[in-house]
Structure formats: structure tokens, C-alpha cells
Amino acid sequence: MEINISRDLFDHEAELAVANRKLFQKMGIIVLNLLAGPGAGKTSMIRSTAPLLKQPVAVIEGDPASSIDTDLLNSLGIPAVQINTEGGCHLEAPMVSKALDEFKLEPNTLLIIENVGNLICTAGFPLGESIRVVMVGVSEGDDKPYKYPDIFQGADAVILNKIDLQPYVDFNRERFQEGVRTLRPGLPIFEVSCRTGRGLSEWSQWLERTIISLLKEG
User: Fold this and answer.
1) What Å distances lie between residue 136 and 41, 45, 143, 162, CA to CA?
2) What is the CATH number of the domain that holds 150?
3) The pTM of the whole model exceeds 0.85
4) How many structural domains does the chain have?
């Protein structure tokens, strides 16, 4: 028996993301989807960024298993809720909307979704976010924009993390930047180090301006 599928399977994901965005707007919150591979420093970036913002910050943590990062953030006074995908390589919109039931978020809150560490699957599953940021650690190599173009093409900004390690690893900053800007000319690239604090001010200022602009748009 032949089955004809006339509808893109990803259309449904897009519809769910639109529903999430409407929910976020109704709540008066701004949502940032943070995408990176394992070990890029997503949780460290959240820890370093939250104190620099005027807006309250809450976090949804996506991991295949455990609540290590969620427990850490909660211990630091950053409200966080865990989603375990039980082996799944990405979060999906319904997971996020369900996790919101565990929060009491104030209007103007920045909700950061720390997606599962993955540079492939996460690119194809929108969550309804208003800001999408891709992060790479210099220890991962300068070839990421060339190997994973989809995730960079959909980004609003790129963070190059662990820049303090650059002298000790084989990483060509110019090659990395050229790869990103070939895909998205003009895309902001922030070179930061959570260990030394380098670049965090510039990154947080850009993020705060973006949040304020989105809140004004309603």
C-alpha cells in the first residue's frame, strides 16, 4: 500500500512554536533559545549573564538525563526547571509549554532555554523563542560554521566562549568568523570568557537592548 504525505512533517512543529510564542507574549516574557554542543559552557554562560541583566532570569534546562545544571542554578538563586528527554537529542515546543506550569514568572522575565547539547537536531525544532543564540567553545574547533551551517543561519547572535583558552588550542578565530559571516553577514559575534569575564559586558548589553526592543514591540 502506498501512502502519500502531502504536508511537511515540520509544519506541525512550526505551528506548535507559534502557539508557544503567543503564550509567551500573553505572559509578557522574552524567551531565548541557547544552542550549543556538549561542553561549550551553556550553564556557565547563564550563570555569568544573569547578574548583569536588569530583567529577572529563569531557565528551562534540557538534558537527556540528570538535574545537575538545574540544581546548580537553583542553588544560585536562578529559578530553573528540568526537562529530561531520556535520550532525545532536542527539546520540542510542547515540552517547553508544559515546563512553564512549574514556574511563576513575572512579566518582563527573560526565560532562557538551555537546549540539549547538539548542533544538528536543535536547529530544526523551533520552540517559540524570540531570540536564538548559538554558542561554540574554542576548544571545539573553528570548523563549526562549515560543518553545521543550518544552526548558524537561524541565529540572532553567536557567542565564542572560552576565549581565554585560544592560545592553547588549535583555533583560528579569523576562519571561524569568516565562516559565520559567510552564512549570515552582519551577525553579531561575541568573544567571551566566563572564567575571566572578558566580553561579558558587551554580550549582556546587546542582550538587554534586544530584550527591551522586543518588550516594546509587545
Assistant:
1) 8, 11, 10, 9
2) 3.40.50.300
3) yes
4) 1
Residue positions counted in the chain: 218
Domain that holds residue 35: 10-217
Closest by Cα among 122, 111, 24, 20 to 59: 111
Give the residue from 156, 92, 149 showing the smallest Cα distance to 119. Answer: 149
Does the residue 155 lie in any domain?
Answer: yes
Q: What is the DSSP letter of 114?
A: E
Within-domain flag for 18? yes
Residues 91 and 34: their CA atoms lie apart, in Å, by 11
Q: Which three cell numbers stand for residue 129?
A: 523563542
Q: List pLDDT tens digits, range 200-214.
A: 999 999 999 999 999
Distance CA 66, CA 82 (A): 8
The label of the residue with cell 529577572 reads: 56
**Residue 140 corresponds to which cell in the numbers above?**
571545539
Question: If you compute the radius of gyration of the chain from its CA atoms, what whole number of angstroms results?
Answer: 17
Q: Is 216 exposed, middle or buried (0-12, 13-18, 19+ CB in 10 A)?
A: exposed
Q: What is the pLDDT of residues 60-101, one digit of tens each?
A: 999 999 999 999 999 999 999 999 999 999 999 999 999 999
pLDDT tens for 90-133 read: 999 999 999 999 999 999 999 999 999 999 999 999 999 999 99
Residues forming a β-bridge with 30: 110
